[in-house]
Amino acid sequence: MQKLIIFISSIRWQDIIDVSLNSYILFRLYALFRGTDVFRVLIGIAFFWIVQRMAVSMGLILTSWMMEGIIAVAALIVIVVFRNEIRSVFRARNIWVILWGLPHKQTQTPVEIIAESVFDMASRRIGALLVLPGREDLEEVTQKGIPWDGKISTEMIKSIFWPNNPVHDGAAIIQGNRVQEVGVILPLSHRNDLPSSYGTRHRAAAGLSEITDAMVIVVSEERGSITLTKATKYTR
Questions:
Q1: Which of 65, 186, 194, 221 is the most buried (most CB within 10 A)?
Q2: What mean pLDDT do residues 19-40 have?
Q3: pLDDT value of residue 40
């Protein structure tokens, strides 16, 4: 009890402010970056910092230098690799959101992500073919592509159909919020009443939508137009 009283009496008001300030800074870092890759890297940096301080107290000079180098490289990685995440966190209307409030994360639905992606690709004249399956199985009418199983994002969709990508000529099958397969070959329609301007992508979209309940989105690289096919209906 006496030791506790001595310890409490030795605490200065500067120590209280010091601990409180650093605790609040750590809390704000957690509040701003929780759930992101940046936060996981920051946890790793904190771990290496603890190891570095332990190495200093134990007189392990070489280990201490190594930990300092790792911390410096990790900090550089955070700035360079995760600059977009950091920018989105600090893109606040006022400074109080950063110092006090919690940032509101804007999440896009799969429909919004797909719409944004196809309109952006259309403006850039990048051809694309996206399949949104219904209840019917597509394995019997399509040639299996490359398994993907990735959560959809505008960057992912655009990278799949980038002209230099080996699978950009095939279709991407999107189920829910995930890209299941890429480079899928669809059956071509043999109808004679299709517009003469329709190319291979449009005929593939028509061929699949005619025999299944899938919805297919086509982006034309020649005209920069977007066509949606469902059953025998075509919507520009």
A1: 186
A2: 75
A3: 76
Whole-model pTM: value is 0.56
Distance, CA of 111 to CA of 117 (rounded, Å) = 10
Q: How confident is the model at residue 185 (pLDDT cuts 50, 70, 90)?
A: very high
Q: Which two tokens stand for residue 224?
A: 């920069």
Residue 71: closest CA among 40, 38, 30, 41 = 41
**Among the listed residues 48, 45, 47, 42, the one whose alpha carbon sits nearest the alpha carbon of residue 27:** 42
Query: Which tens digits make up the pLDDT trace of 216-230?
Result: 999 998 888 999 998
User: Is residue 106 scored above 60 in pLDDT?
Assistant: no
Give buried/exposed letters for 61-93 (b at 16+ CB in 10 A, else e).
eeebeebeebbeebeeebeeebeeebeebeeee
pLDDT value of position 2: 67
Max CA-CA distance within the chain? 97
pLDDT in tens, 115-141: 999 999 999 999 999 999 988 888 888
Closest residue by Cα to residue 183 from 143, 228, 222, 127: 143
Angle, helices 37-57 vs 13-33, to 10°: value is 140
Rounded Cα–Cα distance for residues 42 and 22 (Å): 15
**How far is 233 from 220, CA to CA, in rounded Å?**
17
CA distance 227 to 202: 8
